[in-house]
Each structure stands twice: as structure tokens, then as C-alpha cells.
TrEMBL record, chain A:
InterPro entries: NrfD-like
Segments of skewed composition (Low complexity): 21-36
Pfam families named in the record: NrfD
Segments of this protein annotated with the region Disordered: 1-36
Membrane topology: Multi-pass membrane protein
Domain of life: Bacteria
Protein name: Polysulfide reductase, NrfD
Transmembrane region(s): 70-93, 105-133, 145-163, 191-213, 253-272, 292-312, 333-354, 374-392, 399-424, 444-465
Family: Belongs to the NrfD family.
Subcellular location: Cell membrane
UniProt keywords, alphabetically: Cell membrane, Membrane, Transmembrane, Transmembrane helix
From TrEMBL, chain B:
Keyword Transmembrane helix: yes
Keywords per UniProt: Membrane, Transmembrane, Transmembrane helix
Coiled coil: none
Name by which UniProt lists this protein: Quinol:cytochrome c oxidoreductase membrane protein
TM helices/strands, residue ranges: 59-86, 98-122
PANTHER family: LIPOPROTEIN-RELATED (PTHR40394), QUINOL:CYTOCHROME C OXIDOREDUCTASE MEMBRANE PROTEIN (PTHR40394:SF2)
Pfam families for this protein: ActD
Amino acid sequence: MSKSKDNAPGSPPEGSSPHDAASPGSPPHGAGAHGSGAHAGKFLTGDYNYGSVTDKISAVVLTQESPRSWYVGFAIAFALVMLLLWAVTWLFVKGIGIWGINIPVGWGFAIVNFVWWVGIGHAGTLISAILLLLRQHWRTSINRFAEAMTLFAVACAGLFPLLHLGRPEYFYYLAPYPATTGVWPQFRSPLMWDFFAVSTYATVSLLFWYVGLIPDLATLRDRATGKFPRIIYGFLSMGWRGSARHWARYQKAYLILAGLATPLVVSVHTIVAFDFSVAIVPGWHSTIFPPYFVAGAIYSGFAMVLTISIPLRAVYGLHDLVTDRHLDNMAKVMLAAGMVVAYGYIMETFIGWYSGNQFEQYMLLNRMFGPYGWTYWMLIACNIAIPQLLWFRRIRYCAPLLFVLALVVNVGMWLERFVIVVVSLSRDYLPSSWDQYTPTFSDWATFFGTLGLFVALLFLFIRLLPVISIFEMRELLEETKGESE
Amino acid sequence: MTAPPQLYGLLAEYDNPDQLVEAARSTYQAGYRRIEGYTPMPVEGLPEAMEFRRTRMPLVILLGAIFGAIAGYALQYWVAVIAYPINVGGRPLHTWPAFIPITFETTILCGSLAGVLGMLALNRLPRPHHPLFNVAEFSRATRDRFFLCVEARDPLFSLPETRELLQQTGALEVFDVPQ
């Protein structure tokens, strides 16, 4: 059993090098292939070797007692899941009339939340796919839970269109299946594109995540002491043994999968933006929407990764693996995405004025000074003004402040979707058809319920699977051993 | 073939990847072909040391993606033009730009599925049991140890000589792997 070998003499006593540097022949790997390697050492502080980094991460799942905050957090999240179940049950009993939607505002919270959740998912795929392709070593300690975040966010997102259908039991009408009625879906509709985009995205994210997990599941299988965990992890790891030929195919497949996932992320939020921009509602019919939505997705996604990683590393003491430099990098990405979003706002305003279209011009005035004007100004504050603090290095290196800023951005991005969806719909072309939209308790219950679902799933994930990719940390050690000496 | 039939092979244990790569290379050069390295993470140069250079993964994924593209577009064309044509103000039925988003999604979906299933199939996974798991120390192959296995099926395999060869490569220990 591996248990007896835990503190085996084989682990080198000298800390910083993963193994004895004295090896026969010149190392055939490493040289030249890792352009950014010079800085990689700083993304893993402390003295680690292959064994201790493995033990450190797997201990969270296998041996470490869950801290009390885990139980408290999970209990709160679970209560919110119950609220969600209540809200959904009541919705099925009464119909979507219990939501605040009315006739001009046929899309209310459901679509606001859908777009927000889908956007949050995107940072996970970006971190794992694009940063992998760009050989950014710092992705290694955050990609696993960022991908988990993607999956859970997409699951929350997917709920809303289903619930919004009114008769969710007929959702399969969207799927092109051979029916006796001979009625087929309308493939020219952006909503149909959405169905394909989101379901493809969910599937590919799941595959990417699972493939990344296989070697770590094998590690857990070999390190678990109980019979039941060994069977479960053994089943899930599918007999992975780390064979060199397997690794070669694995790496190739993983890299190409990353290459496929990258344009997929962009396409998903582009298609979500098409839901709006293909319509002719003032405030929606805009060509800037696809890129601007993608930037917004990255913005809110990185904010959510920060929101999760800061408490996570504090509670489990993972400061060596998720370092301040990781937070700094994520804050920089967030700042850059935020500037693109700010450009989007400016362009929307400029084009609204420059178009000379009186409906567009009215839409802008209404957005800023109409009955929902406060949401617009809060949006500007949350998404543009306050995040400018990120220019300061001292703030980027202050984890609690960064956490607050990330929360502010999350709120801001939610407000952005609210402003786009509700404010545009409530006053379109004909004043006779204008109406105000007020969310009901049921709307809020569903929204907070999905927040609870998201957090509960994350807590279970932290408890049951390695939050940081173990084999990639070992790889990082191997690649950076030269620089750390 | 002096090995007893119930032996799967010999397993040599190393404590760093460079030694393993070196050992794999010298074992390969000694003429052994049924050899395999087992490592906790991908080790650069190890497959090459055993002359394993090309995988068919890119081809499998390309074929999956092409299948997805054709199937996705064909489905939309067939539905919109043949099975359920809707005449909206005399607009063309074959409105190809509107079919691009879904075609793109099905391309990615089928490519990714082909990638994952193809990777598992080429690796002959899932395989819950394997003779190597009979060696208790092998559990460290997913932690911090590097192993080289010479299978008994190899025509050059002979228990004392192969063991000697493996010991000369600097192995910490050489284990018999029961079948």
C-alpha cells in the first residue's frame, strides 16, 4: 500500500529541486521549449518535490478534515438550493405568470441570469484552453477549479431558458428529432443556435475537465486508503497507469481539445449576443454586441475565479500554489477585459447618437435618465469606475480588497445584462406599449437559488476531487527545476 | 524464453525522469521492443527514447470534425429545404449564412468527442485491471516514481539478463510483475 511509503526515503531532502540534479547524460527535455519558464518558478513558492506537492493537494480530498467553514458554507448553499427547488416547483404549479415579466418585457430575470451565468463560465475555458496554448505556466494552479466553475455556471445558466419556456417538459422540441408530426426546428433562429451552442459548450467543457482529471483520479486511487474511495476513483480513472505512450496521445488530444475549445468559447457568447443583435429592438440591434459580450464574459468570469480562489486558498492554506502573483495576473486580465467593456459602452453611446435614429437616441436617454437610470449609473460605477483601482499594484496584491473588487465586478456585469435586457424592452418603438418591469419574489428566489446551487456544487467538488491539477504541478516542478537552482 | 509463463515482465524503479529516459533509450538500443515507461506526469523525450513518435490523434480529431461539419450542415439543409420548407416572403430556402453557427458547433462537438473517445480507444482504456497493479510499489507511479517495464513477451526477454541490464541502468529496485 502506498500508505506505508508516504515518507519514503526516496524524496530528496534538498528542497527546491524536485530530484537530484546529478543525472546521467544531459536532460533531453526542457531546453528551449518553455519560453516563459524563466518566471515560472515564482508561481510555485515554498519547497516542494513531486511527492510533497502530490500529498499537499490530495490531502484536501483524502485525509484532511474539512474545516468548519466548509460545513457552514455548504449549509448556507444547501438552504439556497432548497429555495431554488421551492421556486421551481411553484413555477411549475402556477406558470411563469408568477414572474415579473409582462408584455413589452417578455424577457426578464431569466435571460439576464442566463447571459450572466454563461459569461461567468467563459473564464474557466479561457484559462484552461488559451493559456495552455500560450504555454502560460501560471494557469496550472487555477485551471482545475476554473473549469469546474465553468461546468457549474453553465449548469445554472441552462436552467433559465428551460424554466422560461413556460412548459419546460416540452424542451425537447428544440432538438431535431424525427417526430410523427413532421415538424422540425427552425434553424435560422438565434434561439436555436443558442441551444446548440450551449449544449455543445457544456459537453466540451465536461470532456475537457474530465480528461484533465483522469491522471489525478489515478493518483487518488493509488493514495486512497478506504476501499470505497479506491473503487470509485479507480472506476473513474479507467485504469490510468501513466504509460509513456498513453501520455503522448493524452497530451496531443488535450492540446487539440484546447485548440477546439478556444474558438468555441468565443462562438458561444457571440451566439448569445446574436439573440439580441439579430432583433430590431433599439439598444439591441448593434454590431458591437458579439465582441463586447465576449469581453464582458471574460470580465465577469475572471471576477468569479478571483471570488472563488481567494477564500479557497485562505481556507485550505494553498498560498504556495495559488500565489499572489496568480491573483495579480488575474487582476490584470480583468482590468484589460474591463477596458474593452468600457470601450463597448462608449461605442454604444456614440453610435446611438451618431446613427441619428431617434429611437436609438431615445433609448440612450432613457437608459441614463429614465426610470431605471440608477441601474445604468451603478453599472458604470461597478464596471468602469471602481475597477480602475486595479491599476495600483498595491491593490492587486491585497487579496481581501481584490475579493471585494471582484464581487463589485460580478454585480456590475449582472447589472449590464439587466440594463440591456429590461431597459431596452420596457420602452421600444410605441409609447402605447411601454410598461415597467418589477421582479417578483419568485424571480429573486430563482436567482439566489442558482447562486446556492453553484456554490453547493463547488463545495462538493472541493471535497471530492483535487482542486488543483496534481500532475500538471509535477510537470511545473520538472520544467522549472533548472531555474530554481 | 526462459521466463515462467505467469510473468508479465520486469519493472525497474527510478527516482527521477532523466534516469528513466536514459534507461529507456539504452534498453531500446539493446534491442528490446516491448518496453514501456510509467511516469507521474508526461516526461519529454521518453516516448522518443522508445521510438514512439507519431500518434494518430490529430487524424482522428480531424475526421471527427469533418464528420460533424458535414452532418450539421446536411441536417439543416435537409430540414430547411426538403423536409419542412417554410416560404417567408419568397426568401430562398437554402439560406446558408444562417446555417453557419450550428455547423460550427457540431464541428467542434464531433471533433472533441472524437478526440476523447479516440484517445481512450487508442490507449485501450478503460482497463480497470492490469498486471502492473500487482506490484504494490507501482502505486507510486502516480506520485513521485518513474518506472520502466520490459514485458516478458519481448523476444529478447530472459529473466537474469534483462534483470541485469535494468540494474545496470541505475534502477533503485527491479520487481517481478506477476501476470
